[in-house]
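This section describes the prediction task in plain terms. A model, or a person checking by hand, is given the sequence of a single protein chain and must write out its three-dimensional structure as a string of tokens. No templates, partner chains or ligands are provided. The sample shown here is typical of the held-out split.
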Amino acid sequence: MATKHYQGYRARWLDENRRRQSATFPNKASATYCEHKKKVEVAEIRRGLRSPIQPDKTFDDIAGYWNRYKVPRKRSGADDASIIKNHLLPAFGERKLRLLSEQDFDGYLADRVHLSDKTLLNHLALLKAMLRLAHRLRQNGVRWLADVPEIPMPKVRVFDADYRYLRTRDELTRFLLAAQQTSPLVFAFYAAALFTGMRAGEIAGLQWADVDFATRLITVQRSWNGPTRAGDVRYVPLLSPLLSILRPWKLANPGGLVFTNIAGNMFDKSVRIFQEALHRTLKAAGLPEVERNGKKRPYLRFHDLRHTFASHWMMSGGCIFKLQRILGHKSAAMTQRYSHLSPEAFVDDLDRLGVDASGALAEVIELPVRKTS
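The expected answer:
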């Protein structure tokens, strides 16, 4: 029963997790009523007749938790923080997590029709991860969010519309000759991208200790901010064209990193070799600008050198399963976009539905004979 307290009357009860709870009221009747009500609620929760009372957590709460504990540990933490600050918080900040619904997410998409589907997919994927975390977190034994609502995800083609690559041996040769005329560093750096398919950060973080000239293998295990994008280690073959380039390059640059700036440090994401030097090289190679999203753009972006490697691997008859391991794709669907480039892609299927049917059709179909006068 409610008991006298120096500030009034206190109600005491055990919650559904048998934790002691209490509240103080100005009179005994209010305290007794609250105590009885809480005990009935707890009994109903334990018997499954009532859901636990959800804490009034808002999106602000889960955003603060994510920024404090998740962002510093993620390689893409800066991207998460930017999306949360500029998009998710303005849209959902004061909303209670338990009240978020599919209508809210549809409204989010409708207000951002100016963004690409890929960008929106990144936003909603982060939002879904944050709500799943809220579902795991608990306050007084009760989840911040009882159920994760359905989030409509934009459909994004695996085969990106912006996918480009150096399509012929002639384009590849012209590009490398132009890079060679630019500088030995630009030539070696772009050759490493073209003949390994490694990502920009993986090439920037590559160390000579990762390059084994004896076994002809490159160990890919780090990027700009530490681990690789997938967080694991993979092995890339040291192909003959690159072998002949890296051997003399090591003699001239025997430090820890394979490629460094003038100060001997790792290239960061914003340096000229990824953009300005690439654009000059493309222009010198006679590769024209192309139209992307209604604007004239350089023929390639740096990441397209990775597409070039994968495309030429398949065009020269390479194994698609080996390509998946080389590129570090977790999903085979990501690698399948290059499969149509294989010269043997459909060779075994050409006669699958039968041989030349023209003769057989001629025997079956009687063509009308035009009468001559």
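For orientation: The longest strand covers residues 8-14.
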